Amino acid sequence: MEFVASVPSPSVPLPEGDLPQVAFSGRSNVGKSSLINTVLRRTQKSIARVSATPGKTQALNFFRVNGEFFLVDLPGFGYAKVPKRVRESWKTLIESYLETKTHLRGVVHLVDARHEPTAGDVQMVDFLARVQIPTLVVLTKMDKITRSRRAAVIARAASTLNIDRDQILPFSSKTSEGRDGLLEAMDELLTPEGDPS
To answer: Judging by DSSP bridges, how do beta strands 135-140 and 104-112 pair with one another?
Structure first.
C-alpha cells in the first residue's frame, strides 16, 4: 500500500485514474487507523498513523493498495477538540466526496462497540442510505466486550442505526477478529457485478 494524495477541500482534485475506491469513516478515536493497519497487515510500519489525539485526519487521504483500488481514509468526526468551523469544513468535504462517488464502491463505517452509536453515526449512516452507497458498519474494540454482552451490543447498534444485523461486522484490531470478514466484504464491493472472479 502506498500513500497517493491528501485532499483537504472540495476544490482540490481527487487522484486521477479509474481505480475503484472504498472509504472508511467514523468518529474521532474510534480506532480507524488501527483497523486499516490490521486489515492490511501493517503492524511493523503503520501507514495509517495512529494517534492518541482525536481529529488528526483532516483531509481525504488516498492510499493505493496493490495497484488495484484506493482505500480512502475520511476525516473523523465527533468530540475532536477543533473549532466548529473546522468540523463544518470536514463535513462539507466528506459530503462533497460521497455525493460525487464516481469510483466509490462502498463505505466502511466504524462504531465503537463500547458505546451506543452517536447522533453523528446515525446521521452518517442515514446520509449514506440517502445517496445509495453500499455500507458496512464495523463495531470496533470488540475485545473490550464480554461474550455475554456481544449479542446485545450488536442488536443495539442495528436498532439505533436502523440497519439489518447482517450489515454489522464485529472487529478487534487487538485480536484480528473480523479481519477476514472485512476483507471478503471489501472484495465483494470491488468485484464488478457479473464478474465471476
So the answer is: parallel
pLDDT in tens, 121-143: 999 999 999 999 999 999 999 99
Q: Would you list the DSSP string of the chain?
A: -EEEEEE-STTSPPPPS---EEEEEEBTTSSHHHHHHHHTT-SSS-SS---SSTT---SEEEEEETTTEEEEEPPPBSS-SS-HHHHHHHHHHHHHHHHH-SSEEEEEEEEETTSPPPHHHHHHHHHHHHTT--EEEEEE-GGGS-GGGHHHHHHHHHHHHT--GGGEEE--TTT-TTHHHHHHHHHHHHSPTT---
**pLDDT on residue 90:** 75
Residue range 144-176, pLDDT digits in tens: 999 999 999 999 999 999 999 999 999 999 999
